[in-house]
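Reviewer 2 asked us to include a model.

Predict the structure of this chain.
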Amino acid sequence: MKKVGGGLAVWVCVALGGGSVAWAADERPASAVSKPSLTVTVTTPQASSMAQKISANGNLVAWQEAIIGAEANGLKINEVRVNVGDRVLRGDVLAVLQADSLQAELAQAEAAWAEANASAEEAKAQAERARSLQQQGFFSAAQLSQALAAQASAVARVQSARALVQLHNVRLSQTQVRAPDAGVISARQATVGSVVGAGTELFRLIRQGRIEWRAEVTAAELGRIQVGAPVQITAASGQQLQGKVRMVAPSVDAQTRNALVYVDLLAQTGSARAGMYAQGEIALGQSQALTVPQTAVVVRDGFSYVYTVGGEQKVSQIKVQTGRQSGGRVEVVSGLKADARVVASGGAFLNHGDTVRVVDAPVPTPASK
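Predicted model (structure tokens):
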């Protein structure tokens, strides 16, 4: 120890081989002092409002698919006017069946109807004459009753003939296969020249061209989903679709323990098609969360960590559980205190116990006009 200028100076002696080197403590070389390994900025966790979402997978399917079949039996297809992918309106003719035999049967029924009408007119006239003669005493009551019965029978034959004409008109109209609703043709089995039977499927129609997303969610998530909740969907083709929850399934599949959520899509244009696989997120609303910048989270060996700065500017590696992400920030579910000083970025270059130099975060400059 040596007194210098009325004060005390502490000398440190270090042995080097066979000799020694001495220097004052306040004049030690930089190698004897712990150097900061990195210059960092620190931040504190913030309480932010973040959207709650449920991620789910499912298929795009037709909202309703109508099966259009032949009603007439044993007729040949003369013409097919639509193909798969065509958009049609309600009442459009999709196919035309051979109608020659039905037209002939209709003509025959109309002739029988005309004959029945003529017979009915004659029976009516006979009944009027019988009534007049009965009043004059030339016809008995039995003869009048017989004439009236003949008139009623003739009227019944007219009604039967008219019904037969209506039946043949219906059968003739069935030779034109029409769309029951507007939509898109999704399948076609009709072939020109083939003879079809009653009930044979000719086309399938996606009603109104609407498709929906049927998402599979777990039983635990089912109770959190409300009808009308907005949904963001990404189809396998890459198209982004917006939708709303139309219905939540009333039951859970006993095998998979999953339930279906039916989502109406608001726009059907683009590359999305029924049958595609799609991923989506169902919005549940907003909630408060403790968040840090995404750059503050370091992933190592499958776990998430943040670095906090403590006394003597040393960092500690803290294991955390992360959750939602939004706007460059990530939710910290557990493992971090709300008043911790967190390294904002560069954690990938740090290790537990490293010394850092902390600087103030740069103040954003106003944009030039």
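Residues 2-32 form one domain. The chain has four domains: 2-32, 38-50+287-358, 54-64+209-286, 99-174. We have added this to the supplementary material.
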